[in-house]
Amino acid sequence: MSETSLIAILFGSFWLLLLLRVPLAFCLSLPTLLVIYLSDMPTQLLVERMYASLDYFPLLAIPFFILAGYLMNLGNITDRFINLAQALVGHIKGGLAQVNVVVSMMFASVSGTATADTAGMGSMLIPAMVKKGYSPGFSAAITAASSTMGAIIPPSVLMIVYGSLANLSMSKLFLAGVVPGILVGVSQMLIAYVVARKHDYPREARASAPEVVRAFRQCLLPLGIPVIIIGGIMAGIFTPTEAGVVAVAYAVLVIILLRSVSLRELPNIAKSASIMVSLPVFAIASAVAFGWMIAFLQVPNIVGEFIAQFELTQVTGLIFIFAIFLLIGCFLDGVPAIIIFLPIAQEIAATVGIDPMHMAIVIVMTAAMGLITPPFGLCILIAGSIAKVPVPQMIRASAPFVLAFIALIFLIIVFPQIALFLPQLLTT
């Protein structure tokens, strides 16, 4: 069978299974298995590739950061972040919506994952917002949108995966995500303010200076995680994977010191966390196998030859890459999308001369935005289920946040120094 036919079968069966709502891991592994079989290769090759991917040291960071976020949620650390955010921004129009965004910014610096933020924040803030008079759709939408900062603000699991696969400096990549992550948060706070003015949503009472200090003291221990992780990686003390282990150990220490969880509960917590982590790990292993098949079929080279026919500039090349990941992000989670399609993006970047760090930020932001784009944006599905809001209503409520995201990505495409000036300071 020709290479072109195998490529068509690989992608065609993938999209078919995805549209049939088959679980993601099987959407990726079954087409790979089919092409292996049609290519007269031993079918056990799929298992070997999936197993080898789990033995890849940098990818071990993913379950550790997921576990750290899970422990923080379990240990009622979220309550402390909410208290601090309310003391800082609760008095602004649309107070609880502003708190929602600021809490997500804090939690992003701890967990590195967006879905943990959505589940943790949503279970508390969505009911609280609805009780205060906010619409369920807006409450769920801003919770889902703000949680995407967990994929951009360091330590970010998406950045760890990207940096490991693209062989980029993790410390520079983390620094490159700081300003874009903050801009995402600021844009969401502005949207919340406009919506609050339109619907006359309430503001909270202004906190006194002693209340702000008290709330900040309560968060000192949890906020130590980003200081230790980011500082340790930038100082070369440990790798991102080792940082994930440190994050888990520190999270356990924090919840014990704060007496949120007893030592007797830790075995059951570890068991629950293992089950929770197993699903994304299975999907990641399947994505690595699918990505290997794409490389085996020379898809990146074919795309590179196709792109070479056009006179693309760096800006138009990045817009093309953005369009690819925007489409893929509507159906795939960020980590599998990056594992599978990064080689294709790198081929395009090499063809038109795009800076690797610039492309990294554009792809990471686009993958993060995919968590709130229809039809399968994971964060809007989680938030919508918490708020009991149907998907069409979630899509309408999330539209302003998606548009703001797109505007910020285009701004960074045209003005790369927004993201790159901090990493460049590290080299001077």
Automatic annotation (TrEMBL):
Top-rank lineage group of the source organism: Bacteria
InterPro entries listed in its UniProt record: DctM (IPR010656), TRAP_DctM (IPR004681)
TRAP C4-dicarboxylate transport system permease DctM subunit domain location: 11-418
Localization per record: Cell inner membrane
Keyword Transmembrane listed: yes
Pfam families found in the cross-reference section: DctM
Membrane-spanning residues: 51-72, 138-162, 174-195, 215-237, 243-261, 273-297, 317-345, 357-387, 399-422
Membrane topology: Multi-pass membrane protein
Keywords of the record: Cell inner membrane, Cell membrane, Membrane, Transmembrane, Transmembrane helix, Transport
GO MF annotation, one: transmembrane transporter activity
Cellular component, GO, one term: plasma membrane
Keyword RNA-binding: no
Role according to the record: Part of the tripartite ATP-independent periplasmic (TRAP) transport system.
Family from the record: Belongs to the TRAP transporter large permease family.
Record note on quaternary structure: The complex comprises the extracytoplasmic solute receptor protein and the two transmembrane proteins.
Full protein name: TRAP transporter large permease protein
Organism ancestry: Bacteria, Pseudomonadati, Pseudomonadota, Betaproteobacteria, Burkholderiales
